[in-house]
Amino acid sequence: MLPARRALVSVFDKTGLDELARGLTRLGIEIVSTGGTLKALQEKKIPVVAVSDVTGFPEILEGRVKTLHPKIHGGILAKRSEQEHLDALAHHGIDRIDLVVVNLYPFRETVARGASFAQTIEMIDVGGPTMVRAAAKNFDGVAVVVEPADYPRVIAALEQGQGVVPEPLRRELALKAFRHTAAYDAAIAEWLGAQTATPEPEREEKDGPFPMMEALGLRREMVLRYGENPHQGGAVYSVTGGPGVFGGFQALQGKELSWNNLLDADAARKMAGLF
Hints:
By secondary structure, the protein is α/β, with parallel strands linked by helices. The protein is built from eleven helices and seven strands. Helix 4 (70-77) packs parallel to helix 8 and helix 8 (127-137) runs antiparallel to helix 10 (167-195).
C-alpha cells in the first residue's frame, strides 16, 4: 500500500465521524464525500471535497446514483503495483482513493419498524456495497472500514505507519467488509422472499416452497465462558433481524455463561412453556 492521500467517506451512521475526519485531516489525507456525510463535515468546518466535484457529474435520480463512476471506482480498484494501472489513472485524470469508509443504509432497522414496501426498497443500498466490495477486493492497496468501532485503530495505524495501514489490518478489515455486505444482502433476500408470493422460475413443482438457494445472516450475541467443555471456546449467534438469543432474555447476575448454562436455560424456558 502506498501512503494514503485520499479517503472516500460516506456513512449513514455518523458515530465517530468528527474524530475520524479530523484525524484524516491532521494526517494530510484529503476527504471526498457525498450526501449527508458531506453536509455533516461542512457544518463542522472540516475540509471536504464533494464527489460530484471529483466525477464532474451531479448526483441524479434522487441520490440513487452518486458514486457509481469510473473516477471513483477506478481510483479504488487500480493495482498500485501495476504500472499499467497507474498509467491508466494518469491518462484519464483519476486520483487514487486509498481509504474507503462506508456504512450502509439501515435496511434491517427499516424492516423492523414496519416500513412500507416502497420505503424499504429505498433502503437497499447500492453504491455503498459497491464501494465496499471494490475496496475489499483491492485490499492490497486500499483500506476499507465499515464499522465506527474500527476508526481509532485505523487512525492509529495511519499515524504509526506514516500514512500506510499495515497489510494484516487491511486483510482483517477486508474480511469484515465482505462479511458485512454478505449479511446485508442476506437480509434483503430474506425480506424480499417474504414479500414474494409467486414461485421462483427455477423451482419445480416437486420442490414445493423450498428455494434452490438460501442465504442466512447471523450476528454474534455473546462470547461464552467456554463451550460444551471447559477447554473449548464458544460463542452464540442469532439470526440477523430476529429476536435474539431466547427472544431477548438477559442474564441479570452471575458469571459469564457457558454453552451448558444456555442449554439449561433453554430447557427451563421450554418447560415453563408447557404450562
